[in-house]
Structure formats: C-alpha cells, structure tokens
C-alpha cells in the first residue's frame, strides 16, 4: 500500500475498498511506472 501512496499519491482511505487482488494489480502498475530501464 505504501507503494501506491507514493506513486499515485493515494491516501489509505482510497485503498480501503480494494481487495487483495486489486491491490496487487495496482502495486504492479506502480512498479512498472517507476521502473528504470537501467540506462
């Protein structure tokens, strides 16, 4: 949840209604968004 808060600027209240699967999906989106290509 911290990753989502940092990347998407979401407060914990915004994530309260999400299920585990949705949280995992959004966490992956956050990872992809901030991932560097190694250059």
Structure description:
With 39 residues, this protein is mostly helical. It has one domain (1-30). The chain has 3 helices and no strands. Helix 1 (2-8) packs across helix 3. The radius of gyration is 11 Å and the shape is flat. The mean pLDDT is 91.
In one word, what is the shape? flat
CA-atom Rg in angstroms = 11 Å
Q: What composes the largest sheet? A: none
Structural class by secondary-structure content: mainly alpha
Report mean pLDDT, rounded to a whole number.
Answer: 91
Distance between the termini: 28 Å
Number of strands: 0
List low-confidence stretches.
Answer: none
H/E element sequence = HHH
DSSP helix count?
A: 3
Helix content: 55-70%
Counted up, domains total 1
User: What fraction of residues sit in β-strands?
Assistant: under 5%
Protein name: GpE family phage tail protein
């Amino acid at each position: 949840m911290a990753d989502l808060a940092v990347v998407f600027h979401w407060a914990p209240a915004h994530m309260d209604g999400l299920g585990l699967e949705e949280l995992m999906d959004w966490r992956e989106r956050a990872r992809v968004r901030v991932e560097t290509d190694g250059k």
